Amino acid sequence: MFCNDSYKGEEQLVSFNENTLEQILIEELQELGYDYLYGPDMERDYHEVLLKDYFMDAMFLINPGITLEIVEEAFHVIQNLGFVKLEEQNAAFHKYLVEGVPIPYRKNDENKTFQVKLIDFEHPKKNDFKVINQYTVIERKNKRPDLLIFINGIPVVLFELKNMVNEDTTIENAYKQIRNYQ
Prior knowledge:
By secondary structure, the protein is of the alpha+beta class. It has helices at residues 18-31, 52-62, 68-79, 86-99, 171-181; strands at residues 2-3, 6-8, 13-15, 35-38, 101-107, 110-116, 129-133, 137-138, 142-143, 147-151, 154-159.
């Protein structure tokens, strides 16, 4: 498919660079059913990583019987994992993705727990899949990965693309940039 520094599309030969690869990936993901959004055009709080509105809508769709209070609490839990070590955050987040987020609540003077599914693995088409490019997050400094994949408003995959025909591009440079996003 790739030949030297060019990509041969259906109609023409295009110069291959990082932006070309980004556009190809976006188109491929759209063909798979992902919605595409351009990060700079989104109205949102740049300090937030999660897409709260999409998260809220998805939780009501994939968790029958859930209440607004339980959805808000689940959002708060994944937004504030609160562990110091990245490995602990990743382990907790993975457990929530796979098993759901346990949210205690009271019903008829009885303590109960609602297991909030973050992703509907049994009915994948119920989930909201988005690909967003140039999605800026402001922490100590601005961070803007090339592409992010969101499922139900939660970022789950990060792409940092590099121009592989540029001699100055190295695996080490890409690795350092990904470490910055952690």
